[in-house]
Amino acid sequence: MRGNSSTIRTNTAVTTVAALLAGALVLTACSSGDGKKGSGDTSGGATASGSGLTLPRLNGASLEVAAVWTGTEQKNFKKVLAEFEKRTGAKVTFVPAQDPIINFLGSKIAGGQPPDVALLPQPGAIKQAVDKKWAKPLGADALKELQKNYSPGWQDIGKVDGKQYGVYYKAANKSLIWYNAKAFENAGAKEPKTWQELLTTAQAVYDSGVTPFSVGGADGWTLTDWFENVYLSQAGPEKYDQLAQHKIKWTDPSVKQALTTLAQIWGKKDYVAGGADGALQTEFPNSVTQTFTGGDQPKAAMVYEGDFVQVNIGDTKAKVGTDAKVFPFPAVGSSAPVVSGGDAAVILKDSKAAQALATFLASPDAATIQAKLGGYLSPNKNVPDSAYPNPVQQKIAKALIASGDDFRFDMSDQAPQAFGGTPGKGEWKDLQDFLKNPKDVAGAQAKLEKDAAAAYGNGS
Amino acid sequence: MASAAAAGTPPGPAAPKSRRSVTGTRRTVAALFLLPALVLLGALVVYPIGYSIIRSFYNASGDGFAGFDNYKALFTDDGIRTALKNNIIWVVFAPTVSTALGLVFAVLTERVRWGTAFKLVVFMPMAISMLAAGIIFRLVYDQDPDKGVANAVWVGVHDTFAQSSAFPKAHPGRESPLKPDQGGFLTTATVHTGQTVTLPLVGVAPDQMPDRAKKAVAAKPEPGRITGTTWQDFTRGKGVGKLGVPDPSELGYAGMRIEAVKDGKVVASTKAAGDGTFTLPATADGAQLRLPASNFREPYNGVDWLGPSLVTPAIIGSYVWMWAGFAMVLIAAGLAGVPRELLEAARVDGANEWQVFRRVTVPLLAPVLAVVTVTLMINVLKVFDLVYIIAPGSSQDDANVLALELYRKGFAESQPGIASAIAVFLLLLVIPVMLFNIRRLRREVRR
């Protein structure tokens, strides 16, 4: 999992058109912000905005915010912070952190200089921060703003022992299949809604002479994400939670069913670009680029992964929305899955200014600014669709919000790292072996259970 | 370290009244001068080693004494066992191959006029960091022949001898009259003279179609013969179109081989024309038609260099590429010290070049060769970067070595106890090799 979150972070090069468009939008956003600030000054001490967000005046206060974002993503987030500075008069410094951020914070706290607010990428990290007594609960203002804008599901994953600690500022939608529009057109294929339709579509693409799927099997996390989508949709959210906490075993019949379903694609001859051996040596970025290069004869027609795929599409000549399109992961069971990830803002040093920043980050105002810049997805339900710069982003955001509370957090992110987050080990390795030999469902289950038992047992 | 410690406690002065040592320095002065070095060594070498040893007896969180559990894990954990096995392979092969190659290069370059230039080229990889070399070889070994130079060469050689076929991914579409048979396809029904047969397939990429493929036409029945068409039953953008009938823009499979099979024996065979039509003589009456597997041979994809079985030898190859130059330079230096007269004498005595090399040069170089091999052994025991970078995630487990496992246990799986145990174990492995080197050096000095 660390793999994909770092991909989102390291190269957020948005396609030029989107960036230009976003740039224009930002200018307007900033100027309107200026206007608000002026009116706020006159209304004595507090700043109000169109959405009814009230922030205290914090002249002279200074804050530090730590996150692992780099490049464009960092630049865009700084614009959000600049807006906060403008509205409150506080001074905010961005502290670039390294992955895993929890270790980074550990050394900062040991040194006696924790940042005021940190953005943590996993629910497990928030719990760790609370267990170590680093995190401070949200105050009344921030809570009010959060409850107004977030569905209960998104609030709950920021809670530890019933207390609200995290504000999920950024989300990832990992239930998307990206496809080469030209290859689909040549094959006469349509966007599928169900797994059965997906298989039909794949067959149509295959019949047209193009390999249907590109799988980045060298990175184990793409495979765990595949599995999670199938499992969530097929076995349902309750079982998903139980499996994530290892309350049911990997030898459970539901896992067998999900793996058997997966094998309908992974195990079919010529359905995966390069065959199993080729896929196992294809890294995630390459699995995307090979789908969107090669004219009307790409190496594959479809590639599964989250919204951050568009970053890698940016490395090709394909344009998101015309050459590269997307459809939500089809329903395997009764409803389509929404597997997500996200970064939550957590207060580490309690102060009026830190609480105000948390409140601001929970508001649609903050999210809208970054949404307009592209490459960003907010779980905030009050962010208008129109805030996203292109139809593809709007579609992804809509799918995420529409899932309400039925979305689930990436399972391998919730697992101990030895099982769900180490290259060549645990779930990553076992699913890679399964991709190599998709007939051996029982063997894969046995190995998964053995590794899971060892990892969860250690309590690490 | 050893020398510093030895110097730190000089033998006490003989005369108690004088606090000066033999060389005339006061003890306090000596201690003062030694202090910075001792502090640095203590903080940077002794303390970490000591702490690692202590840490290796504690559990993952560091608050419970674990006894020898971590060391037990060393020999029971599958990952560590593979790492150990691979480390042995590394230690045996990487230094010997590098030294052998270095020796050959050194001896040969001595006799070439452009020897220095050659040495420079062989030594050049040493100027590249391990990380960069890793990235280079990750590309060299890439599976895709369009990217990986190793496979490009291999596939190039292979394809000169065995051509791949024109229709590698063709397969029957829906409701096909064909069924798979020995890698090819066989009609379910038998054919008879005067009939026309359709053999539709799908899935051949348009850019892979033979150049002489023309629009497919339905065959006309001919008395006393079997006629038919084999074509790509797929129209771009429309799907199959009319199933089992050639649509206007569909192409014939030019050059597709067709066999008539009766009781497992081929009674007649032919090749399809540009428009996909074919005719078979009356002898094929009552036979089944087969599109043999030779039509569908997959293009050769080269060797799976970074797959589970070849990944360790492949990475050792990249190590040799880097370090053969190092071995060569040291051996060449040693070679320069070999007395020429001995070689001349051997030649005068009638030894041929091989005998001179085998019986004179190599024995004289033996001490140098030993030093080079041992140095490389120490180097190989801690190999990490090449393995970490070259092996793709899917075969990292198969390429695992102790140093990599140490990193994974310590920093990815938060098992610092086991990681410390691996570190201590590595230290124990290095010590005998180091002792050997130190004793060699001492002997050298005495001589």
Question: End-to-end distance of chain B, in Å?
Answer: 23 Å
Give Rg of chain A in angstroms: 22 Å
In CATH terms, the superfamily of the largest domain in chain A is Periplasmic binding protein-like II
Numbering strands along the chain, what is their spatial order in the largest sheet of chain B?
1-2-8-5-6
Helix content range of chain B: 40-55%
- What is the CATH T-level topology of the largest domain in chain A? D-Maltodextrin-Binding Protein, domain 2
The percentage of residues in β strands of chain B lies in 5-15%
User: What's the total number of strands of chain A?
Assistant: 14
Molecular shape of chain B:
elongated
Number of β-strand runs of chain B: 8
Number of domains of chain A: 2
**Overall morphology of chain A:** globular
| CATH fold description of the largest domain in chain B | MetI-like fold
Mean pLDDT of chain A: 84
Oligomer: heterodimer
What does this structure look like?
The complex is a heterodimer of chains A (460) and B (447). Chain A has helices spanning 2-10, 16-42, 71-88, 101-110, 123-131, 140-149, 152-156, 181-187, 195-207, 220-244, 253-266, 275-280, 284-289, 309-313, 352-362, 364-373, 391-402, 411-414, 417-420, 426-436, 441-457, and strands spanning 47-48, 54-55, 62-67, 91-96, 117-120, 159-160, 163-164, 166-173, 176-180, 213-214, 302-304, 324-328, 339-347, 408-409. With 460 residues, chain A is of the alpha/beta class. Chain A has two domains: 2-172 and 341-403, D-Maltodextrin-Binding Protein, domain 2 (3-Layer(aba) Sandwich), CATH 3.40.190; 176-337 and 415-457, D-Maltodextrin-Binding Protein, domain 2, CATH 3.40.190. In chain A, helix 3 links the parallel strand 3 (62-67) and strand 4 (91-96). Chain A starts with a helix and ends with a helix. With 447 residues, chain B is α+β, with helices and mostly antiparallel strands. Chain B has two domains: 69-153 and 305-446, Orthogonal Bundle (MetI-like fold); 178-296, no CATH class. Helices cover 50% and strands 9% of the residues of chain B. Chain B has 14 helices and eight strands. In chain B, strands 1-2-8-5-6 form a five-stranded antiparallel beta sheet, with no helix packed on it. A three-stranded mixed beta sheet of chain B has the order 3-4-7, with no helix packed on it. In chain B, helix 4 packs parallel to helix 8 (311-336). Chain B starts with a helix and ends with a helix. The interface between A and B is large, with 37 and 38 residues.
